[in-house]
Specification:
Length: 457
Protein backbone atom coordinates (compact mmCIF):
# COMPACT_ATOMS: atom_id res chain seq x y z
CA UNK A 1 0.00 0.00 0.00
CA UNK A 2 1.46 3.31 -1.03
CA UNK A 3 1.98 6.18 1.31
CA UNK A 4 -0.76 8.22 -0.38
CA UNK A 5 -3.30 5.54 0.58
CA UNK A 6 -2.58 5.82 4.29
CA UNK A 7 -4.19 8.12 6.84
CA UNK A 8 -2.25 11.32 7.41
CA UNK A 9 -1.91 13.28 10.66
CA UNK A 10 -5.10 15.32 10.38
CA UNK A 11 -7.11 12.31 9.23
CA UNK A 12 -5.87 10.52 12.37
CA UNK A 13 -6.94 13.50 14.50
CA UNK A 14 -10.39 13.52 12.90
CA UNK A 15 -10.67 9.73 13.22
CA UNK A 16 -9.82 10.03 16.92
CA UNK A 17 -12.43 12.75 17.43
CA UNK A 18 -14.91 10.61 15.51
CA UNK A 19 -14.05 7.63 17.73
CA UNK A 20 -14.67 9.59 20.94
CA UNK A 21 -17.59 11.90 20.20
CA UNK A 22 -20.58 9.61 19.88
CA UNK A 23 -23.95 10.10 21.50
CA UNK A 24 -22.68 10.71 25.03
CA UNK A 25 -22.39 14.48 24.96
CA UNK A 26 -25.79 14.76 23.21
CA UNK A 27 -27.57 12.49 25.67
CA UNK A 28 -25.68 12.35 28.98
CA UNK A 29 -25.16 15.86 30.45
CA UNK A 30 -28.40 15.48 32.38
CA UNK A 31 -27.12 12.45 34.31
CA UNK A 32 -23.98 14.34 35.34
CA UNK A 33 -25.99 17.41 36.37
CA UNK A 34 -28.33 15.23 38.45
CA UNK A 35 -25.32 14.01 40.42
CA UNK A 36 -23.49 17.29 41.08
CA UNK A 37 -25.68 20.14 39.90
CA UNK A 38 -23.77 23.30 39.04
CA UNK A 39 -20.47 21.48 39.62
CA UNK A 40 -20.98 19.56 36.35
CA UNK A 41 -18.33 21.58 34.43
CA UNK A 42 -15.77 20.62 37.10
CA UNK A 43 -16.76 16.97 36.73
CA UNK A 44 -16.19 17.17 32.98
CA UNK A 45 -12.87 18.94 33.53
CA UNK A 46 -11.72 16.15 35.88
CA UNK A 47 -12.89 13.53 33.39
CA UNK A 48 -10.93 15.27 30.62
CA UNK A 49 -7.82 15.24 32.82
CA UNK A 50 -8.25 11.49 33.46
CA UNK A 51 -8.72 10.82 29.74
CA UNK A 52 -5.69 12.94 28.84
CA UNK A 53 -3.42 11.00 31.21
CA UNK A 54 -4.65 7.67 29.86
CA UNK A 55 -4.37 8.88 26.27
CA UNK A 56 -0.76 9.89 26.92
CA UNK A 57 -0.02 6.31 28.00
CA UNK A 58 -1.50 4.93 24.78
CA UNK A 59 0.41 7.57 22.82
CA UNK A 60 3.62 6.52 24.57
CA UNK A 61 2.97 2.87 23.73
CA UNK A 62 2.54 3.79 20.06
CA UNK A 63 6.14 5.08 20.05
CA UNK A 64 7.38 1.57 20.80
CA UNK A 65 4.94 -0.64 18.88
CA UNK A 66 3.62 0.47 15.49
CA UNK A 67 1.78 -2.63 14.29
CA UNK A 68 -2.01 -2.73 14.35
CA UNK A 69 -3.98 -3.95 17.34
CA UNK A 70 -3.62 -1.11 19.89
CA UNK A 71 -3.80 -2.61 23.41
CA UNK A 72 -3.52 -6.14 21.98
CA UNK A 73 -0.23 -5.28 20.28
CA UNK A 74 1.16 -3.33 23.26
CA UNK A 75 0.30 -5.96 25.90
CA UNK A 76 1.52 -8.80 23.67
CA UNK A 77 4.85 -7.09 23.06
CA UNK A 78 5.33 -6.39 26.76
CA UNK A 79 4.08 -9.57 28.45
CA UNK A 80 3.96 -12.25 25.76
CA UNK A 81 1.44 -13.75 23.35
CA UNK A 82 -0.83 -15.31 25.99
CA UNK A 83 -1.53 -11.97 27.66
CA UNK A 84 -1.85 -10.39 24.25
CA UNK A 85 -4.38 -12.98 23.06
CA UNK A 86 -6.57 -12.55 26.13
CA UNK A 87 -6.58 -8.77 25.78
CA UNK A 88 -7.13 -9.06 22.03
CA UNK A 89 -10.08 -11.44 22.37
CA UNK A 90 -11.80 -9.51 25.16
CA UNK A 91 -11.18 -6.24 23.31
CA UNK A 92 -12.66 -7.71 20.15
CA UNK A 93 -15.72 -8.94 22.04
CA UNK A 94 -16.29 -5.61 23.75
CA UNK A 95 -15.59 -3.60 20.59
CA UNK A 96 -17.98 -5.72 18.51
CA UNK A 97 -20.75 -5.51 21.07
CA UNK A 98 -20.19 -1.78 21.54
CA UNK A 99 -20.42 -1.44 17.76
CA UNK A 100 -23.69 -3.37 17.89
CA UNK A 101 -25.04 -1.03 20.55
CA UNK A 102 -24.09 2.05 18.51
CA UNK A 103 -25.57 0.56 15.35
CA UNK A 104 -28.79 -0.19 17.22
CA UNK A 105 -28.85 3.45 18.33
CA UNK A 106 -28.60 4.66 14.73
CA UNK A 107 -31.34 2.31 13.56
CA UNK A 108 -33.73 3.22 16.38
CA UNK A 109 -33.11 6.94 15.81
CA UNK A 110 -33.96 6.60 12.12
CA UNK A 111 -37.11 4.63 12.96
CA UNK A 112 -38.11 7.30 15.46
CA UNK A 113 -37.55 10.07 12.90
CA UNK A 114 -39.70 8.14 10.42
CA UNK A 115 -42.40 7.62 13.05
CA UNK A 116 -42.01 3.83 13.04
CA UNK A 117 -42.03 1.38 15.95
CA UNK A 118 -38.55 1.35 17.55
CA UNK A 119 -39.46 -1.75 19.55
CA UNK A 120 -40.30 -3.87 16.51
CA UNK A 121 -37.72 -6.68 16.43
CA UNK A 122 -38.05 -7.28 12.69
CA UNK A 123 -37.75 -3.60 11.77
CA UNK A 124 -34.69 -3.08 13.96
CA UNK A 125 -33.02 -6.21 12.56
CA UNK A 126 -33.71 -5.12 8.97
CA UNK A 127 -32.38 -1.65 9.71
CA UNK A 128 -29.30 -3.13 11.38
CA UNK A 129 -28.52 -5.25 8.31
CA UNK A 130 -29.02 -2.25 5.99
CA UNK A 131 -26.65 -0.13 8.08
CA UNK A 132 -23.98 -2.84 8.07
CA UNK A 133 -24.33 -3.19 4.30
CA UNK A 134 -23.80 0.56 3.89
CA UNK A 135 -20.70 0.40 6.10
CA UNK A 136 -19.45 -2.58 4.09
CA UNK A 137 -19.75 -0.61 0.83
CA UNK A 138 -17.98 2.41 2.33
CA UNK A 139 -15.08 0.23 3.53
CA UNK A 140 -15.00 -1.69 0.24
CA UNK A 141 -14.11 1.48 -1.65
CA UNK A 142 -10.88 1.71 0.35
CA UNK A 143 -9.19 4.02 2.83
CA UNK A 144 -9.61 7.15 0.74
CA UNK A 145 -13.40 6.89 0.77
CA UNK A 146 -13.44 5.70 4.38
CA UNK A 147 -11.27 8.66 5.44
CA UNK A 148 -13.44 11.06 3.42
CA UNK A 149 -16.71 9.81 4.96
CA UNK A 150 -15.14 9.69 8.43
CA UNK A 151 -13.83 13.25 8.06
CA UNK A 152 -17.19 14.54 6.81
CA UNK A 153 -19.12 12.86 9.63
CA UNK A 154 -16.61 14.17 12.17
CA UNK A 155 -16.89 17.71 10.87
CA UNK A 156 -20.69 17.35 10.85
CA UNK A 157 -20.93 16.40 14.52
CA UNK A 158 -18.37 19.04 15.54
CA UNK A 159 -20.29 21.69 13.61
CA UNK A 160 -23.53 20.64 15.33
CA UNK A 161 -21.89 20.99 18.73
CA UNK A 162 -20.25 24.28 17.73
CA UNK A 163 -23.64 25.58 16.59
CA UNK A 164 -25.09 24.63 19.98
CA UNK A 165 -22.36 26.60 21.74
CA UNK A 166 -22.61 29.67 19.46
CA UNK A 167 -26.42 29.73 19.54
CA UNK A 168 -26.37 29.34 23.29
CA UNK A 169 -23.93 32.24 23.69
CA UNK A 170 -26.08 34.36 21.37
CA UNK A 171 -29.23 33.74 23.41
CA UNK A 172 -27.34 34.31 26.65
CA UNK A 173 -26.27 37.74 25.40
CA UNK A 174 -29.91 38.51 24.54
CA UNK A 175 -31.10 37.62 28.02
CA UNK A 176 -31.05 40.20 30.76
CA UNK A 177 -30.02 37.57 33.27
CA UNK A 178 -28.78 34.03 33.11
CA UNK A 179 -30.66 31.04 34.49
CA UNK A 180 -30.79 30.68 38.23
CA UNK A 181 -28.22 27.97 38.95
CA UNK A 182 -29.37 27.74 42.55
CA UNK A 183 -32.22 25.61 41.23
CA UNK A 184 -29.78 22.80 40.40
CA UNK A 185 -27.26 23.11 43.22
CA UNK A 186 -27.34 19.88 45.27
CA UNK A 187 -28.92 20.35 48.66
CA UNK A 188 -31.14 23.31 47.67
CA UNK A 189 -34.63 23.57 49.02
CA UNK A 190 -36.27 22.55 45.74
CA UNK A 191 -34.95 19.03 46.19
CA UNK A 192 -34.22 18.74 42.46
CA UNK A 193 -30.82 17.15 43.09
CA UNK A 194 -29.75 15.09 46.11
CA UNK A 195 -27.12 16.51 48.47
CA UNK A 196 -23.66 16.28 46.97
CA UNK A 197 -21.17 13.79 48.39
CA UNK A 198 -17.76 12.48 47.48
CA UNK A 199 -19.32 9.34 46.03
CA UNK A 200 -21.83 11.26 43.92
CA UNK A 201 -19.09 13.57 42.64
CA UNK A 202 -16.87 10.62 41.72
CA UNK A 203 -19.86 8.92 40.07
CA UNK A 204 -20.43 12.08 38.02
CA UNK A 205 -16.76 12.13 36.98
CA UNK A 206 -16.97 8.50 35.87
CA UNK A 207 -20.18 9.22 33.93
CA UNK A 208 -18.50 12.18 32.24
CA UNK A 209 -15.35 10.11 31.64
CA UNK A 210 -17.24 7.70 29.40
CA UNK A 211 -17.88 10.60 27.01
CA UNK A 212 -14.09 10.72 26.41
CA UNK A 213 -13.47 7.00 25.83
CA UNK A 214 -12.75 5.67 22.35
CA UNK A 215 -9.18 6.91 21.97
CA UNK A 216 -7.90 3.52 23.14
CA UNK A 217 -8.96 1.85 19.90
CA UNK A 218 -7.58 4.37 17.40
CA UNK A 219 -4.24 2.56 17.02
CA UNK A 220 -6.00 -0.69 16.06
CA UNK A 221 -5.36 0.26 12.43
CA UNK A 222 -1.94 1.87 12.86
CA UNK A 223 -0.54 -0.10 9.90
CA UNK A 224 -2.88 1.99 7.72
CA UNK A 225 -1.48 5.27 9.08
CA UNK A 226 1.48 7.36 8.00
CA UNK A 227 4.37 7.24 10.52
CA UNK A 228 2.19 6.06 13.44
CA UNK A 229 5.15 6.25 15.86
CA UNK A 230 5.28 10.01 15.19
CA UNK A 231 1.68 10.94 14.37
CA UNK A 232 -0.24 8.98 17.04
CA UNK A 233 1.62 10.48 20.05
CA UNK A 234 0.69 13.93 18.76
CA UNK A 235 -2.80 13.17 17.48
CA UNK A 236 -4.23 11.53 20.61
CA UNK A 237 -3.51 14.34 23.14
CA UNK A 238 -4.51 17.02 20.61
CA UNK A 239 -7.84 15.29 20.00
CA UNK A 240 -8.57 15.00 23.74
CA UNK A 241 -7.83 18.72 24.16
CA UNK A 242 -10.14 19.74 21.30
CA UNK A 243 -12.93 17.51 22.58
CA UNK A 244 -12.53 18.84 26.13
CA UNK A 245 -12.95 22.41 24.86
CA UNK A 246 -16.13 21.44 23.00
CA UNK A 247 -17.60 19.51 25.93
CA UNK A 248 -16.92 22.26 28.45
CA UNK A 249 -18.49 24.80 26.09
CA UNK A 250 -21.60 22.63 25.74
CA UNK A 251 -21.98 22.12 29.48
CA UNK A 252 -21.43 25.83 30.24
CA UNK A 253 -24.00 27.01 27.69
CA UNK A 254 -26.56 24.36 28.66
CA UNK A 255 -26.40 25.18 32.35
CA UNK A 256 -26.48 28.95 31.88
CA UNK A 257 -29.26 28.91 29.28
CA UNK A 258 -31.75 26.27 30.42
CA UNK A 259 -30.39 23.98 33.14
CA UNK A 260 -33.78 22.52 34.06
CA UNK A 261 -34.10 21.07 30.55
CA UNK A 262 -31.14 18.83 31.30
CA UNK A 263 -33.01 17.40 34.28
CA UNK A 264 -36.56 17.23 32.98
CA UNK A 265 -36.22 16.36 29.28
CA UNK A 266 -37.78 13.03 28.24
CA UNK A 267 -36.47 13.19 24.68
CA UNK A 268 -33.57 11.11 23.35
CA UNK A 269 -31.37 14.09 22.44
CA UNK A 270 -31.41 16.08 25.67
CA UNK A 271 -29.32 18.96 24.31
CA UNK A 272 -31.99 19.92 21.80
CA UNK A 273 -34.39 20.86 24.59
CA UNK A 274 -32.28 23.70 25.94
CA UNK A 275 -33.58 25.76 22.98
CA UNK A 276 -37.13 26.76 22.13
CA UNK A 277 -36.39 27.13 18.42
CA UNK A 278 -37.62 24.12 16.36
CA UNK A 279 -34.94 24.84 13.76
CA UNK A 280 -32.17 24.62 16.32
CA UNK A 281 -33.75 21.56 17.91
CA UNK A 282 -33.93 19.73 14.59
CA UNK A 283 -30.37 20.74 13.73
CA UNK A 284 -29.05 19.34 17.01
CA UNK A 285 -31.04 16.11 16.57
CA UNK A 286 -29.57 15.78 13.08
CA UNK A 287 -26.12 16.39 14.55
CA UNK A 288 -26.70 13.60 17.06
CA UNK A 289 -27.66 11.27 14.22
CA UNK A 290 -24.53 12.24 12.24
CA UNK A 291 -22.52 11.65 15.40
CA UNK A 292 -23.92 8.15 15.85
CA UNK A 293 -23.35 7.31 12.19
CA UNK A 294 -19.83 8.70 12.37
CA UNK A 295 -18.87 6.60 15.35
CA UNK A 296 -20.16 3.56 13.45
CA UNK A 297 -17.76 4.50 10.65
CA UNK A 298 -14.93 4.59 13.20
CA UNK A 299 -16.00 1.21 14.65
CA UNK A 300 -16.09 -0.32 11.17
CA UNK A 301 -12.43 0.72 10.80
CA UNK A 302 -11.10 -0.27 14.25
CA UNK A 303 -12.86 -3.54 15.07
CA UNK A 304 -12.05 -5.67 11.98
CA UNK A 305 -8.41 -4.56 12.06
CA UNK A 306 -8.03 -5.83 15.61
CA UNK A 307 -9.04 -9.31 14.45
CA UNK A 308 -6.76 -8.93 11.42
CA UNK A 309 -3.83 -8.01 13.66
CA UNK A 310 -4.30 -11.18 15.72
CA UNK A 311 -4.46 -13.25 12.53
CA UNK A 312 -1.14 -11.83 11.33
CA UNK A 313 0.43 -13.02 14.58
CA UNK A 314 -1.02 -16.51 14.21
CA UNK A 315 -3.30 -16.03 17.20
CA UNK A 316 -6.47 -16.69 15.19
CA UNK A 317 -7.24 -18.23 11.80
CA UNK A 318 -5.15 -16.89 8.89
CA UNK A 319 -8.36 -16.31 6.92
CA UNK A 320 -8.76 -13.01 8.75
CA UNK A 321 -5.50 -11.72 7.21
CA UNK A 322 -7.01 -11.48 3.75
CA UNK A 323 -7.69 -8.11 2.14
CA UNK A 324 -9.04 -6.88 -1.15
CA UNK A 325 -6.71 -5.16 -3.61
CA UNK A 326 -7.96 -1.90 -2.18
CA UNK A 327 -6.80 -2.86 1.32
CA UNK A 328 -10.19 -3.81 2.83
CA UNK A 329 -9.99 -6.69 5.39
CA UNK A 330 -13.30 -8.20 4.31
CA UNK A 331 -13.25 -11.56 6.19
CA UNK A 332 -12.59 -9.86 9.53
CA UNK A 333 -15.20 -7.20 8.70
CA UNK A 334 -17.88 -9.81 7.95
CA UNK A 335 -17.08 -11.80 11.11
CA UNK A 336 -17.11 -8.60 13.20
CA UNK A 337 -20.52 -7.58 11.87
CA UNK A 338 -21.94 -11.05 12.58
CA UNK A 339 -20.59 -10.85 16.12
CA UNK A 340 -21.82 -7.26 16.48
CA UNK A 341 -25.41 -8.23 15.76
CA UNK A 342 -25.48 -11.64 17.46
CA UNK A 343 -25.70 -10.56 21.11
CA UNK A 344 -27.89 -7.47 20.53
CA UNK A 345 -30.35 -9.74 18.70
CA UNK A 346 -30.28 -12.24 21.56
CA UNK A 347 -31.07 -9.43 23.97
CA UNK A 348 -33.82 -8.07 21.67
CA UNK A 349 -31.75 -4.90 21.24
CA UNK A 350 -31.91 -3.96 24.90
CA UNK A 351 -28.80 -1.74 24.96
CA UNK A 352 -28.56 -1.37 28.74
CA UNK A 353 -27.84 -5.04 29.39
CA UNK A 354 -24.92 -5.34 26.94
CA UNK A 355 -22.92 -2.19 27.70
CA UNK A 356 -21.13 -3.83 30.65
CA UNK A 357 -18.54 -5.76 28.59
CA UNK A 358 -17.37 -2.66 26.76
CA UNK A 359 -17.05 -0.72 30.02
CA UNK A 360 -15.04 -3.36 31.89
CA UNK A 361 -12.76 -4.10 28.92
CA UNK A 362 -11.58 -0.51 28.86
CA UNK A 363 -10.49 -0.70 32.50
CA UNK A 364 -8.43 -3.84 31.79
CA UNK A 365 -6.61 -2.00 29.01
CA UNK A 366 -6.08 1.08 31.16
CA UNK A 367 -4.28 -1.06 33.73
CA UNK A 368 -2.05 -3.07 31.42
CA UNK A 369 -1.06 -0.57 28.72
CA UNK A 370 0.62 1.94 31.13
CA UNK A 371 2.41 -1.00 32.76
CA UNK A 372 3.54 -2.15 29.31
CA UNK A 373 4.95 1.32 28.59
CA UNK A 374 7.14 1.09 31.69
CA UNK A 375 8.32 -2.35 30.55
CA UNK A 376 9.26 -0.84 27.19
CA UNK A 377 11.13 2.05 28.80
CA UNK A 378 13.26 -0.25 30.96
CA UNK A 379 13.75 -2.83 28.19
CA UNK A 380 11.98 -5.69 30.00
CA UNK A 381 9.49 -6.55 27.25
CA UNK A 382 9.10 -10.13 25.99
CA UNK A 383 8.18 -9.23 22.41
CA UNK A 384 9.48 -7.01 19.65
CA UNK A 385 9.41 -3.22 19.61
CA UNK A 386 10.77 -0.83 16.99
CA UNK A 387 14.49 -0.21 16.77
CA UNK A 388 15.77 2.85 18.62
CA UNK A 389 12.41 4.04 20.01
CA UNK A 390 12.10 7.61 21.22
CA UNK A 391 12.03 7.30 25.02
CA UNK A 392 10.72 9.97 27.38
CA UNK A 393 11.08 9.32 31.13
CA UNK A 394 8.33 11.76 32.19
CA UNK A 395 5.74 10.37 29.78
CA UNK A 396 6.81 6.74 30.04
CA UNK A 397 7.16 6.34 33.81
CA UNK A 398 5.51 9.00 36.03
CA UNK A 399 2.57 9.49 33.66
CA UNK A 400 2.11 5.71 33.38
CA UNK A 401 2.14 5.34 37.17
CA UNK A 402 -0.45 8.11 37.41
CA UNK A 403 -2.57 6.39 34.75
CA UNK A 404 -2.53 3.12 36.71
CA UNK A 405 -3.40 4.94 39.96
CA UNK A 406 -6.32 6.74 38.30
CA UNK A 407 -7.61 3.50 36.79
CA UNK A 408 -7.51 1.73 40.16
CA UNK A 409 -9.36 4.69 41.64
CA UNK A 410 -12.04 4.46 38.91
CA UNK A 411 -12.37 0.71 39.44
CA UNK A 412 -12.76 1.16 43.20
CA UNK A 413 -15.58 3.66 42.66
CA UNK A 414 -17.31 1.76 39.85
CA UNK A 415 -20.92 0.80 40.54
CA UNK A 416 -20.45 -2.95 40.25
CA UNK A 417 -23.72 -3.85 42.00
CA UNK A 418 -25.65 -1.52 39.73
CA UNK A 419 -24.13 -3.07 36.61
CA UNK A 420 -25.08 -6.60 37.59
CA UNK A 421 -28.55 -5.91 38.98
CA UNK A 422 -31.74 -4.30 37.79
CA UNK A 423 -34.72 -2.84 39.65
CA UNK A 424 -38.18 -4.12 38.69
CA UNK A 425 -41.25 -2.81 40.52
CA UNK A 426 -39.07 -1.76 43.45
CA UNK A 427 -37.36 -5.17 43.69
CA UNK A 428 -33.65 -5.50 42.84
CA UNK A 429 -32.94 -8.59 40.75
CA UNK A 430 -29.76 -9.96 39.10
CA UNK A 431 -29.16 -8.60 35.59
CA UNK A 432 -28.99 -11.96 33.82
CA UNK A 433 -28.11 -10.40 30.46
CA UNK A 434 -25.09 -8.60 31.90
CA UNK A 435 -23.92 -11.64 33.86
CA UNK A 436 -24.19 -13.99 30.86
CA UNK A 437 -22.48 -11.45 28.60
CA UNK A 438 -19.64 -11.09 31.10
CA UNK A 439 -19.13 -14.85 31.43
CA UNK A 440 -19.19 -15.35 27.68
CA UNK A 441 -16.93 -12.41 26.83
CA UNK A 442 -14.35 -12.90 29.56
CA UNK A 443 -14.30 -16.67 30.15
CA UNK A 444 -15.91 -18.83 27.46
CA UNK A 445 -14.81 -17.00 24.30
CA UNK A 446 -11.15 -16.63 25.47
CA UNK A 447 -11.10 -20.34 26.40
CA UNK A 448 -12.30 -21.21 22.88
CA UNK A 449 -9.66 -18.90 21.37
CA UNK A 450 -6.85 -20.45 23.43
CA UNK A 451 -8.04 -23.98 22.61
CA UNK A 452 -8.15 -23.30 18.86
CA UNK A 453 -4.73 -21.66 18.90
CA UNK A 454 -3.25 -24.58 20.84
CA UNK A 455 -4.78 -27.07 18.41
CA UNK A 456 -3.36 -25.15 15.48
CA UNK A 457 0.11 -24.99 17.03
Amino acid sequence: MSKTEKLGFWSIVLLTINSIIGTGIFLSPGSVVKQVGSFAPIAYLCAAAFAAVLALSFASASRYVVKSGAAYAYVGAAFGENAGLYIGITRFVSASIAWGVMATGVVKTVLQILGMDTGNFTLVTAGFLCLMFILFIINLFGLKVLAWVSNISTLGKVLALALTILAGLFFLLQQKSAADLSLIVPGNSSGTVPAISTKSFVTAIIAAFYAFTGFEGVASGSSDMESPEKNLPKALPLSIFLIAVIYLGIVFVSMRLNPMALLESKNVVVLADIFNSPILQNTIVLGAFVSMFGINIAASFHTPRLLEAMAKDGQVNALFEKRTKGGFPYPSFIFSTVFAIMIPMAFHYDMKGIMIISSIARFVQFLLVPLAVMYFFYGKQKGEIIEKPIKNFILDVPVSVLAIALTIFLLSQFNWVGQFSIAKDGVVEPNIYAIVAMIFGYILFPIIAFALRGKKN
